[in-house]
Amino acid sequence: MKKLVPIFLLISQFYLTQNVAQNLDAATKKLLSSSSAYAANLSMYVSDEDGNFVYESNGNNGLSTASTQKIFTAAAALETLGKDFQYVTTANYSGTISAGNLNGDLFIYSTGDPTLGSWRYSGYKPEDFKQKLIAALKENNIAKISGDLIIDDSYFDFQTVPGGWPWNDMGNYYGAGVWSVNWRENQFDIQMTGGSIKGFNVNLPKVKWVNDIKTGGNSDQSLIYTAPHSDVAYINGVLPNKTITVSGSTPNPPLTLGDEITTWLKEAGIAFNGKISSTSQQKIDGEKENFAPKNNQILEYKSPTLDKIIFWFMRKSINMYGETLIKTLGKEKKNRGSFEAGISYLKDFWTKRGINPAMINFADGSGLSPQNYVAARAEVQSLLWSKKQPWFNEFYDGFPTQGNGMKLKSGTMKDTKSYAGYHTSKSGKKYVVAIIINNYQGGNVSNALYEVLNTLK
What we know:
Helix content: 25-40%
Number of domains: 3
CATH architecture of the largest domain: 3-Layer(aba) Sandwich
Strand content: 25-35%
CATH class of the largest domain: Alpha Beta
Oligomer: single chain
Radius of gyration: 25 Å
Low-confidence stretches: none
Structural class: alpha+beta
Number of strands: 23
Strand order of the largest sheet: 2-1-23-22-21
Number of helices: 12
Distance between the termini: 33 Å
Largest sheet: 5 strands, antiparallel
């Protein structure tokens, strides 16, 4: 009799899996037969926690993933860099200090810290960096800076956004680019009242605005158009006729940081009459690039550890974090801080872990580019591998809970929606799932995918 128990359990498991697969298939066919999905493409793959196949619908088909792309970047970063990895920002000077006078330039240099000046981390907010920088200057008896303030943003290459990012995304906060010296997540806020620009939370040096906002409705339907290093910004669309904050991507974060530092110097009584520049701006102006000296360091400022960065990267889907991680992987593993090097490393990383390279046609690290083409099966394979790693708890902690109560990473772009993650059913069965739909037109795409995913509950 005892010998029959395992056989009975196997048979029960088989019928349970078969029943779930049948229900998933019915829900998927219902979705694809809807008018909104008339010309849509779907890729879906489901396994159990051990990798045993449960269900698929075009699981090998590569589609634009949107932000579920982040699961590949986050896992590769944790494995490659380590969860305790930290970015470093320094303050250095050239010349000499004599009688309180710095006879030289003050430099700010960073290895690409995406959290520098972020508001998300206790102990790492803009005022924390300000206090430590001013304290370092005073500890070195610097009461006057006779030279210039130079932001050395040469650690990564000059390109700040991946090729293929849409023009109507790049000027908005979620389209912020990546510099070697980032500041406030390269985001600025505009206070708008009745369609008029009333003020900014930071200064945007040399930027001129064209405002074509109309008022109406109850929600923010505006778009900001600008580009890295641009001195022109354009805002259009519709905003409610009230005071509202609209967030954009900072055209030149190093210069915005430099401008803010000069305000801190004035408040601290440290005299400064020089100019603000950056190595990227010197390159643009055809000037000799002035790099931070390796010696004469007065401040070393470290970022939060990578596990904390990954939490916010996954939980709030911060695209700029993903692209910083891509450049960091390129710099660390190929000695080139470029998107090309980082994407190449990312694809090699997952290919070596058994994913067919045809299913992971990466274009960036965040999923904002519609040129990413990734299969649902590849997402499930990466999630299965990640579940076995010692840093899995930190990785999983960042997954948000969706509107249907399931803990999944989501992705959203125009006519595109995706979910990927882990779910335990009421019966205790554990699943790993990924679903991607492109060109779904009209209707509530989230609810449409929930109807399929809820089959696993």
